[in-house]
Amino acid sequence: MAAMEIRHLRYFITVAEEGHITRAAERLGMQQPPLSQQIKAMERELDVQLFRRKARGVELTEAGHAFFLDACQMMAQLERARETTKRVARGEQGRICVGMTSTSPFHPLVPRSIRAFREAHPMVAVTLEECLSNESMERLRGEQMDVAFVRTSGSQGLVVHTLVQEPLVVALPSDHALARSGAEAVSLKQLAADSFILYGPPGTGMYDAIIAACHKAGFNPRVGNLGASTQQAPRITSTLSLVAAGLGITCVPASLQRMNMDGIAYRRIDGSVQPKANLSLALRRGMSSSVVQKFVKTVRQAARDLSLTPCQ
Q1: Shortest CA distance to 189 belongs to which of 156, 216, 226, 158?
Q2: Are residues 155 and 82 in the same domain?
Q3: Residue 232: domain span
Q4: Which of 143-147, 213-217, 235-239, 261-265 is the least confident region?
Q5: Cα angle at 170 between 168 and 172, to 5 degrees?
Q6: Tens of pLDDT along 285-307?
Q7: Do 142 and 221 share a domain, yes or no?
Q8: What percent of the chain has pLDDT over 70?
């Protein structure tokens, strides 16, 4: 509807509510003659009489009353559309798709920041999707996802905010000699002869972090395909299930110790090599969505509130 037509509706509604053209003109902040001309122009365009003139004002005809109900509804819909547009522009309404690796929700930052965002922006629909870090990166670049919690520190075409570094711990079968020894910590060198079960394919944040840590400790981890001396699993739950079955060991972020599984013992990593796992938030470069920007702000504030130190 054009701006003049919207004005016409407002003029008509005001006259109908006041029942008097002069009072309606005062309410609208205009002169009485132009308002009378606008009403007459509407009646000519509609080819109906909207008002019946009386000695002291005007009253709606039957046709005018029907038009008044529809006009009020149209103006209410327009006002709702305006308010919705403003809320979306402010990031108060809309939707957001958030990706996360299967290890992310175990860190308190992730559920806390999502809860804080939903409480602050109840009119934003939040969709959560689980996938590996490299999958999240591809989906972000393909505009299939808006933002993602990942276990990596950077990627081409994306902005990656590193939120926290947390230490890796070793997940051992509970009957492993190092688990039964009573030691609270082990060094990576003590694991050089063990079969490693790696999480995700090469290029995934955790996979690369474990390989790099072993290399820094002076050995190449025994890595192979399923059925070989080392296992490779697609998800962290299947990784830990293989460890519990005694098929090897793995390293996981310390927050994963919240996942209590029969047959698994967690141990801190001691020695000169202290591997860390990044927990980061990734989004497309140049992302202008107000909802996404507010989500990023909420997550980073949650990280500060938890007294987490970003990786520099």
Answers
A1: 216
A2: no
A3: 95-312
A4: 235-239
A5: 160
A6: 887 788 999 999 999 999 988 86
A7: yes
A8: 91
* pLDDT, tens digit (0-9, with 9 covering 90-100), for 133-169: 888 888 999 999 999 999 876 677 899 998 998 999 9
Determine the residue type at 61: T
Q: Parallel, antiparallel, or unpaired: how do β-strands 264-270 and 185-187 relate?
A: parallel
Same domain, 165 and 263: yes
Among all chains, which residue has been given the structure tokens 């132009």? 34
- Decide if 140 contacts 96 (C-beta within 8 A): no
Is residue 260 predicted with pLDDT exceeding 50? yes
**Domain boundary, last residue among 56, 89, 122:** 89
Give me the chain's average pLDDT, please. 86
pLDDT for 309 equals 47
Mean pLDDT for the stretch of residues 172-199: 91
Count of the separate structural domains present in the chain: 2
Say if strands 276-284 and 147-150 run parallel, antiparallel, or are unpaired. Answer: antiparallel
Give the pair of three-digit tokens for residue 161.
Answer: 């905010």
Q: What angle do CA 160, 250, 304 make, to 5 degrees?
A: 35
Residue 126: other Cβ atoms inside 10 A: 15
Rg (CA), the chain: 32
